[in-house]
Amino acid sequence: MSGIFLSLGSNLGERKENLALALKKISGLARLVKTSGIYESAPVGFTDQPFFFNICAEIETELSPPELLSELKQIEISMGRIKTARNGPRVIDLDIIFFRKQKIVSQNLTIPHARYRERLFVLLPLCEIADFVPPGEEMTLSVLCNLVTDQQCRLIGRI
Questions:
Q1: For 97-107, what is the mean pLDDT?
Q2: How far is CA 63 from the centre of its chain?
Q3: CA 9, CA 39: separation in Å to the nearest integer?
Q4: Tens of pLDDT along 25-56?
Q5: For residue 96, what pLDDT is reported?
Q6: What CA dihedral angle connects 133, 131, 70 and 121, to 10 degrees?
Q7: Given this model, what pLDDT does residue 17 score?
Q8: 89 has a pLDDT exceeding 90
Q9: What is the C-alpha separation between 115 and 87, in angstroms, rounded?
Q10: Please, are residues 119 and 151 in contact by the beta-carbon 8 Å criterion?
Q11: Has residue 1 got a pLDDT over 60?
Q12: Strands, E, within the chain: which ranges?
């Protein structure tokens, strides 16, 4: 198992096609191991925006975490992502959730992702493709998923 997991989200334009294109671009820099189904979720934080489509993917890559982050940010830019308000609408959002068992805290990168355990739209698709005890946790992803009860998220299909 590679242990590198990404979360992808889109709530502007053709959301399903945006996720498919992002996966295609990611496959140019890493090997896709597994991808989850597509989950539709209500926005968190800034709620006056369209619902999101979300997926998770497990990848294998020789890139370091900072190199992978840089490449993912380039994919976002190439797909037309424009930085707006925090948690605002976006064509594509690409986040590193886990990078093997590493823990990283820097100005530009936090792994595991700082808010993964609070977000059903990350946990549900992640549990579909893996279930393990994350670094720094005592519970599996599926147990953490069951603790998030204040959000809506539902499986709507596959890419």
A1: 94
A2: 18
A3: 9
A4: 999 999 999 999 999 999 887 778 899 999 99
A5: 97
A6: -110
A7: 98
A8: no
A9: 12
A10: yes
A11: no
A12: 4-10, 31-35, 38-41, 52-60, 93-99, 104-105, 110-111, 153-157
Contact 140, 133 (CB under 8 A): yes
Closest CA to 154 of 15, 18, 51, 13: 51
Distance (Å, whole) CA 16 – CA 133:
30
Task: Judge whether 3 and 98 are in contact, CB under 8 Å.
Answer: yes
Q: Fill in the amino acid letter for 117.
A: R
Residue labelled with tokens 């096609």 = 17
Return left, alpha or beta for 157; rule: phi > 0 is left, psi -120 to 50 is alpha, else beta: left
Structure token pair of residue 155:
């499986």
Measured CA distances, 18 to 58, 75, 146, 147 (Å): 18, 11, 28, 30
Q: What is the per-residue pLDDT for 139?
A: 94
Helix, coil or strand: residue 111: strand
95: pLDDT strictly greater than 60: yes
Q: So what's the pLDDT on residue 149?
A: 85
CATH code, residues 4-157: 3.30.70.560
